[in-house]
Description:
Blueprint: H1 2-17, E1 26-34, E2 45-48, E3 54-56, E4 62-68, E5 73-77, E6 84-87, E7 92-97, E8 121-126, H2 127-131, H3 139-142, E9 149-153, E10 162-166, E11 174-178, E12 181-182, E13 203-210, E14 224-230, E15 238-246, E16 250-258, E17 266-277, E18 286-298, E19 302-316, E20 322-323, H4 324-327, H5 331-340, H6 345-353, E21 367-382, E22 387-410, E23 419-421, E24 424-426, E25 428-451, E26 456-478, E27 488-509, E28 514-532, E29 541-557, E30 562-573, H7 577-582, E31 591-603, E32 607-628, E33 634-654, E34 659-681, E35 686-696, E36 703-713, E37 716-725, E38 728-729, E39 739-740, E40 743-756, E41 759-769, E42 777-787, E43 790-799, E44 804-812
Parallel strand pairs: 1-7, 11-14, 34-42
Antiparallel strand pairs: 1-4, 2-3, 2-5, 5-6, 8-13, 9-10, 11-12, 13-14, 15-16, 15-44, 16-17, 17-18, 18-19, 19-21, 20-43, 21-22, 22-25, 23-24, 25-26, 26-27, 27-28, 28-29, 29-30, 30-31, 31-32, 32-33, 33-34, 34-35, 34-36, 36-37, 37-40, 38-39, 40-41, 41-44, 42-43
Amino acid sequence: MKKVTTIVYLFICMLIFSVSVYGQKIRLEGLVIDQETFTPLWGASIQLKSTQKGVLSDSRGHFVLTGLPPNQEISIHFVGYEEQTIKVMDQFLKITLKKSNFLNDEVVVKSIRADENAGMAYANFSSDELKKSNLGQDMPVLLQFTPSVVTTSDAGAGVGYTGIRIRGSDATRINVTINGIPVNDSESQGTYWVNMPDFASSVSSVQIQRGVGSSTNGASAFGGSVNMQTNQFEKEAYAELNASAGSFSTLKTTLKFGTGLLKGKFTIDGRVSKIVSNGYIDRATSDLKSAYLSAAYFAKKSFFRLNYFAGKEKTFQSWYGTPESRVNNDLPGMQAYIDRNWLSEAEAANLLTSGRTYNYYTYANQTDNYAQDHYQFLTHHSLSAQWDMDFNLHYTYGRGYYEEFKPASDLLVYDLKSFVKDGEFIHNTDIIRRKWLDNDFYGTTFSFNYAGSKGLKFTFGGAWNQYIGRHFGEVVGGDHLPNSYLGHRWYESKSNKTDVNFYSKLNIQLTDRWLAYADLQIRTVGYDMRGIADKRQDITQNSNYQFFNPKLGLTHQINEVSKIFGSWSVGSKEPSRQDFIDNPGKTPQPEYLSDFEVGYSKQTAKYSVQLNAYSMNYKDQLVLTGAVNNVGEAIRKNVASSYRMGLEASLNYALSAKFNWQVNGTLSQNKIDYFVESMTDYDSSEELLINHRNTDIAFSPNVILGNQLTYTLGGLQTSFLTKYVGKQYLDNTSNEAKSIAAYLTQDIRFIYTVKANWAKNIQFNVLLNNVFNSLYSSNGYTYSYVYDKKVISENFYYPQAGFNFLAGVVFRL
C-alpha cells in the first residue's frame, strides 16, 4: 500500500506541474455514423490534419474538438470504412462513413491492440517513422527512443544479435507478435531479431505496450509487448530500391515491389534484402538475407492474406563479452585475469593487443548459422453490421547450428572413447562441434468481435499453438580424430510444448465521460521433454500449468482534450526450457505479476502529453542469485517478492511550423525485497550463502531519457536524437563494483526528399551515431567466487561503437 501511495503522490505532482499552452479558437461537435445502417460508430478517429490533435467518437458516435483554427481540415478514420477528409465550415457536422470495398489490413490486429480509450501505456510507430532510420540496424535499435526502452548490440553497431528491454525486463519477458501471431521462441521465450533481417522494411506499423498490456497470444508480457503489422493495402503498383552503406563495411540492399490492385480484388507485395557488416567488435561479422512475399484477396465482407517471410543469418560469435580490465585498458588487471584463468599464450596475446573491440573467439568458423521460414494465412470476415470474425493459421520452420572450437577437450564429455595415435592413448584433444536446433511451430488464432450501438464492444478469442523442438550436438572435426568419430551425436533431446488460451474482452461506455473494460484470459501450457542435454544430463520430465489472467480498467474523459485512466492487470509466466534443464526434478515455480497503472493524457493542436505511473509487483520472479547447476552453469531461482515502480512522461510539442520536439523520460525503482546469494568457495569446496535485502534488480536503470528535436526546412529534415540510460547493476546485489556506468549518446539524422516527375519518392538519409564518441557499454554479465581467501568477481561487458555513420538512398517508382 505504501508503494501505491507513493506512486499516486508523485503522479499528482507531475499533473500539478504540467503546463497548458492550449488556447480555444473554434469548437466543433459532430456525429459519426454508418452510411447504410445509420448506426453510430464508436471509436472513429477524428484527427486535425498536420497536428497532434485528435479524438475518438464515443458510443453514440459523438465527438467534440475544440481549439480549431478557422477553415481547418479534419480526417475521419474507422477500421473497415473509407477515410474522409473534410474542411471545417460549420460548428456541427454529421459525418457518414461508407464501408470500404477493401477491408484494410488494420482489421487483423484491432482485437489485440490498444486504442486511445484503452487503460494502458503504449506508443505507436508508422512505417514512415521506421523508414527514417532503417539503414540496416535491427528493429530494437529503430525503437530505442520509446519511453522506458533500452537496447543493446553484441557486435556493438546494431547489426547482428541485438536486444531490447522495456522497463528493465529482458526479451524473455516481452511479448512479440506479427499480425497477432506469436514470435517468441517457445522454449527460451526470447525473440531473436537476427532471424528476421530487415523486417522493418515490411512493417506498416508497430505498437509497443508497456506493462502487462493487452497481449493475448504467445509469451506473457512481464515488461511489455511489441506488436507488428506487416504490409498495408497498396492500391497503386510500385517498385522501390533501398540501399545504404556505412561504418564497419556495413552494406544494406533492399528491393521491394507491389502490383497494386489487380482486377479489383488482388494484390501481391514482395521484398528481398541483404545486409552485411564487419561489426564494431573484432570478427563480429554478419551476413544476413531475408525475403517477404504477400498475396491478398479483398472482398466487400472478407479479407484473405497469405504471408511468407524468411530470414537466414550467419554471424561470427561475439556473445562472450569483454573482460572489465580490457575495457578499461587496465594492464595489471589484464595480467591478473590471464593468470587466474590460465589463458594460453595465444589467448593472452589476443587480450593484450585487441583494445576495447576484443573478441575472445579466434577460430575462423566460430559462427552462428540459422534459417527460419514463416507462413501466415490471415482472414477477416464481416458477419453482420455488429459482428466480425478473424481466423488465422501459421507455421514456422526453424533450423540451424552454431559451431565452436573447444581446445584440449575430454573425449568422455562427448561420449567418445580414447584412441591411439602414434602408439599413445589420446584422452584429450581439440574438438570442433556443432549444436543444432531444428524446430516446428504451428497453430491458429481466432477472435469474434461485436460492436454494438449502445456503447458495447465485446471480443471472444483464443489460440492453439504447438511447438516441437529437436536439440542435438555433433562432433564435426578435431585434432587427428578418427573418421568414425566425425558426425557423432553426443546428446539429443526432443521437446513438445502446447499452449492454449481463451480470452474475453468487454468495453462498455458507462456514461458520456466514463469507459470501463475487462479482459479475462485462461491459458494452459503443457511441456514435455525427453532425452539428453549438452552436458550429458537426462532432462526427461513433464510439466503442466494453468493460468488465469484478469485485466480491469477505467477511463474518464475529463474534457475534450484530456483524460485519465486506471488499470489493474495480472500476468503469469511458466519457466523456460533452461530452467527445466538446470533444475531436474525440482523445477522452479511459475512467476506472477500484478500490474497497477494510472495515466493522464492531453492532446491539443500544438502538443500532446502523456503521464503514466506504474507499480508492478512480482511473486516468485526468477532471477540469478549466483547459484549454479551440477555442471557449474549459472541458474535462476525464485525470489518471493520483488517490484518495479515508476513514472513515465512523454511530450510531443510543435514549437513552430519548422521545429518539433519529442521528449520522454522514466524514473523508477526496481527492487528485490529479499534473496539469498550463492557463491562458490573453491578453498573449502562449499557454497557460501549471503543474505540480501532491498537490492536493485539487475539491468534496471532508475533513469531513462529520450529526446528528439527536429527541424524541417523545405525538403530537408534534421533531427537531434539523444538517449540517456542511468546506471545498471550486472547482478541483483547492488554492488557498485559490478555495474554498468550511466551513458549518454547523441545522434544526428538528416533526411532530404527530392521531388521528381519520374519517381514517386526520392529520399536521401544520413545517420551520424554517437557523434561525441562516447565510450560506453550497454550490457554485460558477472560471476563471483572465492579463491585463495579472496572474493573475485569476473565482470564482462559489451562495448558499443564510438562515432559511426550510415547513409542511404530510397527510390520509389
